[in-house]
Amino acid sequence: MELRSLVTALFALLFWTPQLAASRAGPEVLHRDVCIIGGGAAGTHAAIRLQQKSKSVTLIEKEALLGGHINTFLDPRTKAAFEYGVAVFNNVSLVRDYFDYLQVPLKSFTGWVPNATAVYADLARGNDLPGPTSNMSDFLPALNSYKAQLEKYPYLATGFHLEYPIPEDLLLPFGDFCKKYDTRAVAQYLFPSNGGYGNLLATPTLYLMKQSSMDQVQGILTNDAVNNAARGRNQALHEVARTRLEKNRNDVFVSSRITRVDRTGESGVVVHINTPRGKKAIRASKLVIAIPPTLSTLTPFMDLTNDEYVHFRQFNNSYLWAAVVKNSGIPTTASLMNLDPAAPLQIPAMPQIYGTTPTPIKDLHVVWYRSPHLVPDWEVKSHIEEDFNRLYGRGAEVVVLKNHSPYLLEVALDSVQAGFYDGLNRLQEKWDTFWTGAAWKTNDSTAIWKFNEEVLLPMILASLKGRG
């Protein structure tokens, strides 16, 4: 027995001691120019562009894939793919250049099925409806009227660099703005096409104009949107981006959790992470945060400054879900718009399904659901199935559900008027920290990439040059 114990101890000494020693030695330390937290549209684009500028980068993402609001559904039977998250991009040079650099082909997008039709229903009551009160003859004049108003505020195109006093029209609830400028038909269009508004007609016009920008208006007027349907799925863009970053000796850590961010040193920041490849410590000259700047997302790993805390605690947000639904009962080639005949402009109160679209897979539809307040995922799933079963009685089933919350970060109008966004912009570069994403621009990939190009990258590059 003593000999067996001795042999066991020697075996442990020979084969396990190096691993134990490694576990006690602390995390692997990586030295980089920039560390980016968040691998969605904002963070991935920033990483690629910094790589193009010959800067070393580490990109950290909590999910297993890069892409953020991009969700690609791959049918296990047919292997056909379609998007139930971000489906289209604006056809502008910035988008084309980004896709070209990553060698991901683009082509015009006219929908997942040819000759798609539309049906209308009051899902809350389970009734079919004839359609919205406006039609295309109403919509185009309304859109041109909206465009004329939007042209008054060119500064909305890049970040929240506002002019004071803020024009009264920008502070109006969008429903009142639509009455004033006869753009009601635009509101009925925006309801199913732009997700995330807890209450569209009550949302300040400022936020609607940020979301429904001039690029989007031009795309509607020219019917000119693009996606990477040439490869069949938008997720390909982020897969290629990850490969390109790793090939050029940059780091991409997915399925990774940030445990602590230290910003107290004189030589940049240190980001501590747990990854599938072990613990890492990223020593970077600059930190870019490309996730929603809310207290719930940041405080678990980051000590905020007083200015950061004061600003971030003021954000409110809506909630958005995207789902793929089987047996909805909607005709195979039709989209469904949810209406409430008794509501202003027939726009139903949320939480509720607000629209659907057909897909290349028979009897699968993409469904969007939004709410002004938090709803558990299981409850959203139940609501979706109940609504379709009430209308069609077909045994609807949510195949996959993706929570895109928090969505559309906003602050109270008195804070906007008091200069909230000027203070938010002044947070850039303090403590070697830079910020990007929807809260700094809007929930639109093209607009966020434009913010990166025109605001974020020049600041980071100038700061790195100053340090060097």
From TrEMBL:
Superkingdom to which the source organism belongs: Eukaryota
What's a Pfam family this protein contains? NAD_binding_8
Q: Does the keyword Lipid biosynthesis apply?
A: no
Designated name of the protein: Amine oxidase domain-containing protein
Q: Which UniProt keywords apply?
A: Signal
Q: Where is the signal peptide?
A: 1-22
Please list every transmembrane segment annotated in the UniProt record, as residue ranges. Answer: none
